[in-house]
Amino acid sequence: NKKKEVKKAIDDKEFDIPQVDTPPTLESILNEPEDEDEAFVLEDTCLLGAENIDAHSCETLSLGSSDSGDRSHHKRRRPLEPAAAAAVHGSVLRHNVLKGISAQMASAADKVDAGLPTALTVSSVIAVGTSHGLALVFDTNQALRLCLGSVAEGVEYGAVSALSINHDCTRLLCGFAKGQITMWDLANGKLLRTITDAHPPGTAILHVKFTDDPTLAVCNDSGGSVFELTFRRVMGLRSCDSRCLFSGSKGEVCCVEPLHASTQLRDHPITQHALLAMASLTKILVIGLKPSLKVWMTFPYGKVDPASVPQLAWQFVVAHKMVNPMLAFCRGDTVHFLLVKKDESGVIHVIKQRQLHLNCDLISLTWINSRTLLLLDSSERLHVLDRPSQEELETVDLSEVQLVYNSSHFKSLATGGNVSQALALVGEKACYQSVCCYSGQVVFLGTKSVHMMTLRNWRERVEHLLKQEKFVEALSLAWSFHEGTAKAVVGLYGDPAKRKSVVADKMVEILLLYADRSLKKCPEQGRIQVMEQHFQVAAPPLQQDLLFGQIYSRLVENSVAKGVFLESLEPYILSERIGCLTAPIMRDLLSHFQENGMMDSVENCLVHMDITSLDIQQVVQMCWEHQLYDAMIYVFNSGMNDYISPMEVSSACSKPALLDTFCSVADEQVVMGNKLLVYISCSLAGRAYPLGDIPEDLVPLVKNQVFEFLIRLHTPEAPEEEEVYPYIHTLLHFDTREFLNVLALTFEDFKNDKQALEYQQRIVDILLKVMVETSDFTPSQVGCLFTFLARQLAKPDNTLFVNRKLFDQVLEFLCSPDDDSRHTERQQVLLELLQVGGVIQFDEGRLLSLAEKAEFYQICEFVYEKKHLYDKIFFCYLKDPMRREEIFNYVHNMLSMPGYRPQERHSVREKALEHIQVTHLGISDTHITHWHITRVLVILFVPPSLLVIVLFLYSLYTCLFLLGCQITRQHALHAATAYLLERKGDVLGAFQVLLQVRGIKPPTSHVSVSPLQDPVYGKGKLAEIQGLILGMLETFTYEQTLLETTTNLLNQDLHWSLSHLRSAVSRALHPRFDHCNICLQQYKRRQEGADEIVVFSCGHLYHCQCLQSKCCTQLEWTLAWSCYKCTSSQGRRGAGPGRACDEEPGRGRSSSLAQVRVGAHRNPSKAPPHTHTPLPTHLCAAVFQLTILAELSRSHGNEKAGQLHPAPARSTSIFHSENFQLRLSPPPLVEE
C-alpha cells in the first residue's frame, strides 16, 4: 500500500511538470543543437536545502561542485587549455544535457525529499538512485516511468549505492549503503526480492552487476569481498543463493566487471565461460564462472599511487581479423590491454597488448566503441583516445558537470565506517556509479543534472569547424576522411570508393564556401595579411579542375585575392603536387611574379612545370631579360629538344671578359660560367639540367651534340682574328681545373663506346694544341692539363696516345732556369704531375738535372725518395732556403720512425754528424737555431760519454748551457747533467744529482754539505773529494742493510716466542682435586667469603684466603703467588723457591706465568680485596719489555728443544748465538 501511495504521489502535478502534446524522444534530445537561443537552466543550488542533505550524500560531491568541502579540489581545478589535437581532429564528442531527467531529479529532491542522486545505470531506460533510497526510472523520452522504493525504506536501507539492469531490461538490482539488495520488475515496478544475507552484515554494497545470464549476478561489498548471486524460482517461491568468489581477507576488491556480449556475439565461444574481471588494490584477476569457477589470469599493478582508483572495462574488438574480447584496466596513469581468445583446442589465452601512458591520474575508464576510449582524470578532464594509434583526439572539461563521487560508500559511513584505510583512500576519488556506457553513449551523473557524451558523425565534425570559420582545419579534416586516416569516424561507408565520393562532394562545398568567405572578408580589412590567413591552401589534386575553374574565376575579380592565390601555388608547384596549369593561369602567374620582382620564384616554378602549359615566347623573352639561365635551359631542352643553343649563348656572353686576363670578371659572368660547366657535365652524363634525366632515346644524341660543340673549329659568324677551337679555349680560360674535372668524369663512362673513345682522343689532342702551342696560359694551367693527362695514361684500360716529347717540352717549360717568376707555383705543378704518375713519362736523370738547375729541391726529394737515397735528401733540405729549418724534423723522423733499414739510418746519421761539425766550426755564420741542434743531438749521439763531449763543446757558449741541461735531464743523462753543472761551477748541484741517481735523498744537514760550501773545497773540483763521498755512501748503505736485517730477525723471533707464550697462558687448567690443598675443604661447599680460588698449572687448587695466609710474596706493585704444596716439597728437596712447579711431569712452564683466579659468586659492585694499584703507562711499558726479553732469553731455547727434540740440542735462535750480544738501552728515567 505504501508503494502505491508513493507512486500515486509522484506524478506530473506533484512535480509541477508542464504537459506537452508530444513528448520529445531521446534521439531528438541527443540531436539538439548546442547553440539554441534559450538554454535550459537548472534550479538554483539553494533549492536543495541543508535539511535534505544526509550523511550518505555529503561525501559524493564533484570537484566542480560549489559546496564541496575539499579545498584541495579547487586547487587542482584549472581552465581547459585548447588541445593541439583539436586542430587536426576537430570536435569529436557531442555533449548533451538530459534536461528532462535533470529537472525531474531536482523537483523530486525538493518536493518528496528523494535526496541527491548517488548512482546511475543505463540500458533502454535510465535509472537513477538517490540518497534517500529511491530509484527513479526514466524512459527514452525522459519521462519518469517508475519510482521504486520509499523514503521509509531509505531510512532502513540507506542510500542507493549501486544499480544494474539485465540485458533484456526486465530486472533492476539495487544495492544499498547498509548492505541490502533488492530486485525490481521494470515492467510493473513490483519488488521481487529483498536480499539481506548475500554478504557479511555491516558492509555497504559497492557494485552489483548482472551477467549475460539473467539468473546470475555478482556483488562487491565495502569489505572487499566478491559474491556470486544465483536467482532461483521453485514452485512460485523466489530465492537467492550466495557464493563467495573472493574474500576481502586476501586482498580487498574495489571494482568488478562481467563480460557482456551484444545479441550478435552471444554465440562467441568466450561468452559461455561468463568471464568476470576483478580489480583489487594490488592486482587484476580474470575468472570464469562457468562451467566451473576457474582463475584464468592474474596481473599485478606494480608500483602505483595508493590513492589511485582501479578501473576495468570490457569491449569486443577486431584483432588479427577476428573478434575477441579485450579488457582495458588501469590504476594511475597507465592503461593496460589484455586480449582474450580461445584457440582451436578450446584453451583460453590471455595476451598482453601494448600499454598506453598518460600524464594524469585516471578515475574512470570507458569504451565508447571498439577503437575509442574515454578516460576521465582526477581534474575532471575527459580524454578521447584512439586505441590503435594511442593518439589523443580531444580533451573536454567536465568540471561543470559536478560529478557525483561514491566516497561515502567506500568509507561505509552508513554502517559505522568499518573499512580499511587503503579502501577509504581509494574511495576518495571513486565514481564507479556515476559513469555508465550503453550502445555508444556515455552518461555522467552530476549532483544536479545528467549529461550524455556521444561521438559526432563525420559531417557534424566538419560543420562544427565551419561554424567557427576554421576553413583550413575543415579542409584538412575532410581530406583525412577522404584518405581514410581520420580517427573515431562515424557515419562513413566502409567501401573506399563510396567514401571518397561522398567526402569529395563535401570538400567541393567547403572550397566554394571558403572562396566566398575570403572575398567577403578581405575587402573589409583591406590588408593582404588578412587574405593570407584565409587562403594559404591549395586544393588536392583530384579537384584541380574545380580549383582553376570555378574558384579562380571568383578570385580573379579581386586583385588581392588573385595575388595571394597565385603566390600560394608556388610551394605546391615546387613539391610537384601541381605540375600543369592552364595557359591563362600560367600567364597570370608569370605576370604577377614579374610585376612584384619575384624572379627567383618564377625560375623555380618554371623548371617544375609541364612544358606544354607554358607560353614559350613569353617564357624565353622573360628569361633573356632577367637572366634566368636555368629556366632558359629547361625550356630549350624540354620544349625544343635543343641542347646546343644554351651553350652557344652562354659562351658568347661570357667570352670577352673571360679571355681578357687583366679584366675583372663580373659576378653574373662567373655564375653563367659555372652553370655552363654543370650543364655540360650533366649533358655528357645523361642527366637533364637542372632536374631529372634526359630521355634514354636522346642520351647518345645529346652526347654527340655536346662533343661536336666542344671541338668546333670556329663559332658561327666568326671574325677572321678568332683563335681555333674557341669553346674549349673559353672554358679553359674560365676554370681550367674544373673543366678538366668535367672531362675526367665523362671519360669514366667511356668503356666500349668506339665513337666516344674517338671523341676522347680528339679532345685530348685539341687540349694539347691549344695549351702547349699558345703562350697565354699560366704554368699552373699547363700543369693541370698534364696532370689530367698523367691520370688518364696511368689507368690500366687507357686508350689515349700522347707524344712523350710534349711531356719533355712541358718539363723544360716548367724547369726553365731563365724564368724566375712563379718559382713556387711551377715547382708545385711539376710535383703534382709526378705524384699522379707522370714520372713514367720522363727520363729520371734528365728530370733530376733540370730540377737541380731550377732549384726544385722538392722534385729532387721526390726522385731520391723513389731511389731510397735518403742521405741525399738531407742536402735537399740543407740547400732549400724555404725548408732549411725542417732538416731537423727530417733527421728526427728518419732516425726514430719505423720503416727504414739500418744502412739508410746510418747514412743519414753520418751526414748529420758531418753537417753539425761543420755548422759548429762556423756557427757564427749559420742561421740554424740552437734549439734545433740540441733536438737532434740525443738521437745522433747515443753513447752518453760522446754526448758529454759534444755538450762540453757547446757549453762554451752561455746561450747553450741551460738548453743543454734541459735536454740531458729530459733524457735522464745524469752524468752529463752533473758534468755541465760542475763546468758551470755549481758543485753542490752536481753532488745532489749524483745522490739522486743512487736513490738517496739529498742531505739537508749543514755538517754534511759544509766541505762543499767551504771556500777551500769550493774552488776545487768534484773529483778531489769523489773518493771520500763514495766511501761514505758505501758505508752508509752497508750499515743500513745490517740494521734492517737485524731488526727483521728480532721481530721474527719475538713474534714466534710471544705466540707460543700466548697459547700456553690461554690454555685451560684442570684441578686434580675438588678441595683446597691447605684446608682440605671442598671449594664448592665453603660459604663464607667470596669463595675465590687459585688454580696452578700443576693442578693444585687453593682458597685464596688459605693460600694468602701460607705463602704470598708482596712485591712493589703486585702479589706474587706460588703453589704452596710444590714449594714445600721442593724445599724439602733443597730446591729454591724460584723452581716451583718446574719439575712437575708434563708441565713445561712455571706456574707463575699461568696464575688464574676464579670467582664462583662475584659481586660486581664490590672490588676484589687484592686489586692492584695501576702503574704509569710508560713505566709499565718499560717493565713489560724488560720482563719479556729476559724471559725469552732464558726459556726460548729450552722450550724449542723440549718440543722439537727430546735430546738436548743447541738452539739456532739468535739469542743463543755465540757472536751475538744483545745491547739494550736502559729504560727512560721517570721523574717523580
From TrEMBL:
InterPro entries associated with the record: Vps41/Vps8, Vps8_central_dom, WD40/YVTN_repeat-like_dom_sf, WD40_repeat_dom_sf, Znf_RING, Znf_RING_Vps8
NADP recorded as keyword: no
Classification via Pfam families: Beta-prop_VPS8, TPR_Vps8, zf_RING_Vps8
Keywords assigned by UniProt, alphabetized: Membrane, Metal-binding, Transmembrane, Transmembrane helix, Zinc, Zinc-finger
Biological process per Gene Ontology, one example term: endosomal vesicle fusion
Organism domain of life: Eukaryota
Disordered as annotated region, ranges: 61-81, 1129-1172
GO cellular component terms listed in the entry, alphabetical order: CORVET complex; early endosome; HOPS complex; late endosome
Residue ranges constituting the RING-type domain according to the UniProt record: 1076-1127
Listed GO MF terms: zinc ion binding
CDD domains: RING-H2_Vps8
TM segment ranges: 936-963
Recorded family membership: Belongs to the VPS8 family.
Identification of the protein by name: VPS8 subunit of CORVET complex
Species in which this protein is naturally found: Scleropages formosus
Gene symbol of the encoding locus: VPS8
